[in-house]
Write a structure and sequence with these properties.
- By secondary structure, this protein is mostly helical.
- The chain has 37 helices and five strands.
- Helix 7 packs parallel to helix 11 (199-209) and helix 11 packs parallel to helix 14.
């Protein structure tokens, strides 16, 4: 008979012929020791286990545990251990989404895990044959493990050395690059990988982790001069997007824009706008002047004169060329999600990069802009303008003033309420009070609307009605803090904190005091019960979440 005690020992009952039953106490190994033993046991069979459809999942989880990385990254579905279908199945069966299982948190791990991970990646990379490495790049089972190994080895000084795991996967590209050797078989192998369903994902990982020197070698040999063909391929276009998005310096980005710029029109209107957005995102990341990109967009939209370019915001939002826009019925034009995403990327450009777009926005009829606020894609554009740290304060003020007298109507709308929130976070005290006055005129209607109630709570309407002077003083304090720490903490963080503290503070009730003075045992039971109730009540429902500061947010 075997059992475990609370002090970490295992009790084993044994029979002795002379003395009768005896208990043997055996110390159980710590979790750290268990994990390290698993690593030692699997390291020799690692290449074979990579090819097994069941064992490969265990290897990926083991690597993530050793690195202390989230097992389930909710922000990046491509790195998730479980597929979307599997996650949905588990949610339906267990009644709780994956995010409630604490798998999406980065964890501190023992120092021994780091050494074990480094030794594991080094030994596996050295022992793996060239044939096995190349075969795993296009394997549905082995490629995800190989990609994760490369990502974890990126910071290693041996990552791009000749004979490394990466060099084996690329069929000696790193080894031959120093000697300027060419290999027709390797060229055919990598070109096939670019258009392969699985191999393309591997190449995306390679360009993301490669140094500027290796990135340049890959681009020159396999992408330069071929963008026109690869960008329209149903698979390789995603690799092209990754290459554009991962440009390492200004020279590389300029070369990409020169080659892709002449075909921007085809990219925008032949279902490949993601390629254009990748170039803009790269310019944002490198903080470069996007003059050539904006010029290529003008040409692609057939907007040549200044009058035509004033419609830039419309042409991108609806993804339509200027001659077709002039002939179309404006009220029947549908918003395009990809166009909205391109606009949001342009608004993140530094310097005067977003200037032409903002001039186009300010030249539009305010009535049109208000109609955008009630559209799922259009409202995202208005929110991006108000929230972007690169948009000048004056432009934001002019945008807010365009909606004056209509904030109550916007608050009643499912999508317009998000615009009200965005305007509130960037407004000064005087303008906030004008919004409050508008909301008070239709308070009854807002109370009957879900989005309206959230806006009333976020703006602290009840607090304003009872203590207007204290409400103003509080807003002044938040405004002073925002200006004092803007350069240190960042505008976005302060805006969120400001909105969270605007809501009316909760009064301390007798019930709250009783709960705080209750014994710990009862408090723990209450907490457990609340957690269980929330899991059942929130399943498959869209609710409004309330944070600790009392801010209600849309879900």
């Amino acid at each position: 008979m075997r059992g475990e005690t609370s002090d970490g020992f295992a009790e084993v009952a044994a029979n002795d012929e002379d003395n009768g039953p005896q208990e043997i106490r055996t110390e159980l190994p710590a979790f750290e020791e268990l994990v390290l033993n698993i690593v030692n046991a699997l390291s020799e069979q690692w290449p074979n286990m990579m090819a097994n459809e069941y064992a490969s999942h265990i290897l990926r989880v083991l690597l993530l545990v050793l690195a202390g990385k989230p097992i389930e990254d909710q922000k990046n579905s491509k790195s998730a251990i479980k597929s979307k279908r599997s996650a949905k199945y588990m949610e339906d069966k267990n009644g709780a989404p994956i995010s409630h299982r604490l798998l999406s948190e980065k964890r501190a791990v023992p120092e021994s895990f780091g050494h074990a991970l480094e030794n594991l990646l080094s030994s596996v990379g050295n022992s793996m044959s060239d044939y096995t490495a190349r075969g795993s790049t296009n394997s549905v089972v082995g490629s995800p493990v190989l990609q994760l190994m490369l990502e974890l080895q990126e910071a290693s000084p041996d990552f791009e050395k000749p004979g490394s795991l990466l060099d084996k996967c690329l069929m000696g590209l790193i080894s031959d690059s120093s000697a300027n050797k060419t290999n027709p078989r390797r060229n055919a192998y990598i070109e096939m990988m670019v258009e392969d369903v699985v191999g393309s994902h591997f190449l995306q990982t390679v360009v993301r982790t490669a140094s500027a020197q290796l990135f340049q070698i890959i681009y020159d040999q396999y992408f330069a001069g071929k963008i026109r063909t690869l960008a329209f391929h149903p698979i390789s276009n995603f690799v092209v997007q990754s290459v554009f998005a991962c440009a390492k310096n200004e020279q590389q980005l300029d070369h990409m824009v020169k080659e892709a710029g002449p075909i921007f029109g085809d990219l925008l209107f032949k279902n490949r706008p993601g390629v254009v957005r990748a170039l803009i995102d790269s310019a944002v990341r490198l903080q470069l002047n996007p003059k050539n990109i904006i010029g290529a967009i003008y040409n692609g939209l057939d907007a040549n004169t200044q009058e035509e370019r004033n419609e830039l915001i419309n042409l991108l939002a609806f993804l339509i060329k200027y001659p077709d826009f002039v002939k179309a019925d404006y009220n029947k034009l549908p918003f395009k999600i990809q166009g909205s995403l391109i606009i949001q990327s342009i608004l993140q450009l530094s310097g005067d990069g977003q200037g032409p777009l903002l001039e186009s926005v300010l030249s539009q009829d305010p009535t049109r802009m208000r109609s955008w606020c009630k559209d799922p894609s259009g409202s995202r554009i208005i929110e991006a303008i108000l929230a972007s740290m690169q948009v000048p304060t004056r432009t934001k003020r002019l945008m807010r003033e365009r909606f004056s007298g209509h904030y109550a109507d916007l608050a009643l709308d499912k999508y317009g309420s998000h615009v009200v929130d965005a305007a509130w976070k960037t407004a000064d005290i005087a303008f906030k009070e004008s919004i409050v006055q508008e909301l008070l005129q239709k308070e009854t209607q807002l109370q009957d609307s879900r989005s309206g109630r959230i806006i009333l709570r976020n703006c602290g309407i009840e607090y304003y009605k009872r203590r207007a002077d204290q409400w103003r003083e509080r807003e002044r304090g938040l405004e002073r803090k925002k200006h004092m720490f803007k350069d240190i903490l960042g505008e976005k963080l302060l805006l969120n904190d400001s909105a969270a503290q605007t809501a009316e503070p909760k009064a301390e009730t007798f019930e709250t005091k009783a709960q705080s003075s209750a014994p710990k045992k009862n408090k723990r039971k209450t907490s457990d019960a609340d957690e269980i109730d929330s899991l059942f009540n929130n399943t498959n429902k869209r609710v409004a979440s309330i944070d600790l500061n009392g801010q209600v947010s849309h879900v």
